[in-house]
Amino acid sequence: MLPELIVERAQQLNLDIIGVTDHNSSENALSVCNAARGTGITVLPGMEVQTREEAHVLALFDTIDQAWTWQAEVYASLPLLKNDPRFFGEQILLDPDGEPAGYLDRLLVTATDLSIEDVVARVDDLGGLVIPAHVDRPAFSIIANLGFVPLQIGITGVEISSRLAPGEARARFQQLSDFSLVTASDAHRLDDMQTRTSLGLNEPTVGEIRLALAGARGRWASIDGVCTNPTRSARDSVAVDRIV
Q: Which of 59, 85, 134, 187 could pair with 193 as two cysteines, CB 3.0-4.6 Å apart?
């Protein structure tokens, strides 16, 4: 998953936008942003946050400074435990050019003390976007751990895992009828990367994605050509994906 190989694979798949969403960290997002310069691919730096409720939620930003501000808050909310590479693997840090620069020794594979409400509110304050991740999974999902997706916190779209079609997801989880759906590869290997989600955007920004998930101002979201906004239908598209 070297940055230049991630970008090369994204080009092969004709992806327009990719999200870099490592678990509880944005340390290596800049190297992917730099690798994509001049390619026409937009890289959204972000994070897959593990909340106090043991739910995974995605935080996406337009700029690396936003992501790093958020990272500082997440790091402050993690327990002061060290990573054990024998069990969890080495957490390699890359420099801006994508070269190995060291190792992160704090444990990332754990929950923060931030609630889902805390995450949504603070990411919104920073200009980012929160999308609950793989909500259909029996572990580390908002539905599995809370039993529902809270409407009052302002979420308009959720991610379903790639094994499910939108119709099947809504049949299994009727509450998803209130939300737009996206899916992504959640790739830990290059071969995992895929193209399934398309968004109708005027530009590749978090603000436009927010509009697409809301089905507002002519924007829309679709999976495999099937519109997933509760009340809209898809036309032209921009292919997107996320990796970790």
A: 187
Question: Rounded CA gap, 41 and 132, in Å?
Answer: 24
Q: How many domains does the chain have?
A: 1
Domain presence at residue 216: yes
pTM: 0.94
Query: Tens digits of per-residue pLDDT, 22-59?
Result: 999 999 999 999 999 999 999 999 999 999 999 999 99
What's 176's domain CATH number? 3.20.20.140
